Amino acid sequence: MPPPADIVKVAIEWPGAYPKLMEIDQKKPLSSIIKEVCDGWSLANHDQFALQHADSSNFYITEKNRNEIKNGAILRLTTSPAQNAQQLHERIQSSSMDAKLEALKDLANYSRDVTFAQEFINLDGISLLTQMVESGTERYQKLQKIMKPCFGDMLSFTLTAFVELMDHGIVSWDTFSVAFIKKIASYVNKFASDISILQRSLAILESMVLNSHDLYQKVAQEITIGQLIPHLQGTDQEIQTYTIAVINALFLKAPDDKRQEMANILAQKQLRSIILTHVIRAQRAINNEMAHQLYVLQVLTFNLLEDRMMTKMDPQDQAQRDIIFELRRIAFDAESEPNNSSGSMEKRKSMYTRDYKKLGFINHVNPAMDFTQTPPGMLALDNMLYFAKHHQDAYIRIVLENSSREDKHECPFGRSSIELTKMLCEILKVGELPSETCNDFHPMFFTHDRSFEEFFCICIQLLNKTWKEMRATSEDFNKVMQVVKEQIMRALTTKPSSLDQFKSKLQNLSYTEILKIRQSERMNQEDFQSRPILELKEKIQPEILELIKQQRLNRLVEGTCFRKLNSRRRQDKFWYCRLSPNHKVLHYGDLEESPQGEVPHDSLQDKLPVADIKAVVTGKDCPHMKEKGALKQNKEVLELAFSILYDSSGQLNFIAPDKHEYCVWTDGLNALLGKDMLSDLTRNDLDTLLSMEIKLRLLDLENIQIPDAPPPIPKEPSNYDFVYDCN
To answer: Which molecular-function annotation in GO is an example for this chain (predicted)?
Structure first.
């Protein structure tokens, strides 16, 4: 007979004594269990003791997390969190350097536990650490030369403890002084060779900027881009990641009027070329965290274009009108202007109207009206001028080539440029906040200071080429734009390392090639419409759906590693969730780092019976998506969010690593609840598998017409001599 569910068998250690085997009744108060353990070893004052896990985490067991205890777990009887916090609070103020160092090392380790952290913070521990950073360490400055390793370790443990304590979100970031910020900022320069101190200092600065507007202003005054750049030129990718994260945080939190100024400073300091040389083209793989920070920097850089993208042209603004005059001058190299007589004025207007028509504007009389739609607003005109000035030969060739055609196949340069700019802004999501989970950066955008403009120049030439290949007329404009978008998207998915490589990829994606790809995809997804085939489809579909369901459930049994998102992304914790092989329980628990393979059930502390699940919600309906926070309310995170609701108010919140995992988990959970699997992935899998199964079943019927009615049953044979008797 199995033991009751509330009874857990564990071993409990106590220094200097043999471990004690005992059964813990989870219904009993934790204090009475601790008293029972203390009585067994004749220990008085049981209220000064606590239980903790004897593994590397050393986390305290509380009423909140006691359900994480598993059968066979090894626990340790130790001093209570309050006692431990009090002792460490006193020890870190010791006059002995060795004792102080050992105490700070212990503090850095214990601070990961939220139970201990709460007790230490209640003793005003954060203030003590900040005082030590501000002034306490100066007491040992003179000893640095003879005791440098000891001093470095002491500071490293102090900052580690501070970071861990602040990570629990118990204390507001707004409480820190300018002196503390100055000290942390100084460590970024002073301890460039001490990786641990530098890493923690950068992490603290990033958290300050992201979590407090007041601290952003103070940090921005103390730390300069020039001070951060040297850390990108090193070889430690983790330090490079933290450095780019601080730059991104400063960029993200900067007021709108300061962002362009900051971008100019980054350009002066050659940040782009330094990242390209020392990060992107370094002889090592780029990890996920670095890829995310590069993606964020890419998005924030392109978002600088939002102001121009949303600015309408003022037809009365002479400076803006002069840009259109310049486009005309470069294209047609107008001779000296006519005299300002009334006759010549009419002649000049007529000439301008003719030239604006050749330039492909919709409004020939006043082309400024073409730029009043937002997006793309003035950004389209900026791109056209850049193309005309920096790729003058290509610009003149495109304009003259199309203006000289009289067969209605001319490609309107003005209209094309406006629509293309709008399309490129949509592809690169200009104006949207960076996603918390995306790693999709493009190396080619780090190869040029004006990468968006160069991107446009390549694509406008592609558009002109595709227009000619399609022999398009003005009625085909939207069709051409669809083909061009497909060409660009397919080239971008290959992640070209340079703009030249991107251009080369586009050369191979001609209109003819796109037609071949489309034809191939159509054939693969061919849908036979004859009645027998539809009946066969109907018969096969339940089998295919059951196959998809089993695949989803098998994936849930394998499990997935999820991130716990917080304000300081690199310090995120991982957690793992998987379904039990009998499909009755979800096992989940926190991890120290991302696992390399499957995580065993017994190492996951929590479990949730499938029978207790009330509903699965997605997107904006998720409880954790209703919270407001920086970078949280954006489209991509919403598309990856789902939650399991259980009991009256219980919830398990997820943010999937990618769209595929999102579909797998929402499908699997719906299958467990007996609901339909409605994801895009299920639809695609169903179409693919149905098509394959039907083609396999019809393999021998190739080129044979399938009759609408079944053939007649043949007559019985005259004898059965051909039958082989197996007996």
So the answer is: SH3 domain binding
Cα-based distances in Å from 346 to 317, 318, 349, 623: 22, 20, 5, 67
Contact 435, 441 (CB under 8 A): no
Which helix or strand (DSSP H or E) is residue 358 part of? helix 342-358
Q: Which two tokens stand for residue 62?
A: 């509380």
- The torsion angle over the Cα atoms of residues 159, 165, 169 and 171, rounded to 10 degrees, is -80
The domain locations on the chain are 7-79, 314-334+345-417+437-520, 541-684
Radius of gyration (C-alpha) of the chain in whole angstroms: 34
Confidence check: pLDDT of 75 > 80: yes
pTM > 0.85:
no
CATH of the domain spanning 7-79: 3.10.20.90
What tokens were used for 587? 């096992």
- 605 CB-near residues (< 8 Å, 6+ apart): 65, 68, 69, 70, 589, 590
User: What span, in angstroms and rounded, lies between the C-alpha atoms of 646 and 257?
Assistant: 47
Write out the two tokens for 714.
Answer: 């043949």
Task: Please name the helix (run of DSSP H) or strand (run of DSSP E) that holds residue 450, with its range, or none.
Answer: none
The pair of structure tokens assigned to 660 is 């595929």
- Name, in order, each residue with C-beta under 8 angstroms of 595's C-beta and a sequence gap of 6 or more: 561, 574, 576
Give pairs for 573-581: CB < 8 Å, separation 24+.
576/604, 577/604, 577/652, 577/654, 578/604, 579/553, 579/610, 579/668, 579/672, 581/557
- Percentage of the chain lying above the pLDDT 90 cut: 49
- In 3D, which of 462, 458, 513 has the Cα closest to residue 484? 462
Q: What one-letter code names the amino acid at 437?
A: T
Whether residue 590 contacts residue 573, with contact meaning beta carbons closer than 8 Å, is answered with: yes
What residues form DSSP beta bridges with 575? Answer: 562, 590
DSSP 60: B
d(CA 487, CA 505): 9
For position 719, what pLDDT does the model report?
Answer: 82
